[in-house]
Amino acid sequence: MEGLAEGVNNLRITDASYNKKKNRIQVSNTKKPLFFYVNLAKRYMQHNNEVELSALGMAIATVVTIAEILKNNGLALEKRIMTSTIDMREDAGGRPIQKAKIEILLGKSEKFDEIMAADADAAAAAEEGIEYE
């Protein structure tokens, strides 16, 4: 039993798809506000240098909007866009329904760190009541 516990403690996952999942955000257009996802994507890019935004169906417009906000603010560069359809079942016995899927991979822009530092300075100044230029 001790050998099993030791083996589990020393377990390393080498599957490349596992490592990619940690920087993926699956976006819903009903669960969280738009800027929740924008700020989450910024945080993911700070730690992983890139983020993958993923959505199904009606949430695709939300993912595209998030990507455009990040790109227009100079924070991200588009690396890859993939579209596909997947089969989903609404009920256990129902027929499969095809849903559109999008995955957008964004990477840090060259000025990402500079822009994030300026935003942090502006936020700190606002907290102190100082006018920031």
TrEMBL record:
GO molecular function list: RNA binding
InterPro entries linked to this entry? Alba-like_dom_sf, DNA/RNA-bd_Alba-like, UCP030333_Alba
Which GO CC terms are listed, alphabetically? nucleus
Instruction: Supply the Pfam families for this chain.
Output: Alba
Return the Gene3D superfamilies for the record.
Alba-like domain
Sequence ranges assigned to domain DNA/RNA-binding protein Alba-like in this UniProt record: 23-75
> What is the protein's name according to its record?
DNA/RNA-binding protein Alba-like domain-containing protein
- Please report the organism this UniProt entry assigns to the protein: Malus baccata
Ranked from the top, the taxonomy reads:
Eukaryota, Viridiplantae, Streptophyta, Embryophyta, Tracheophyta
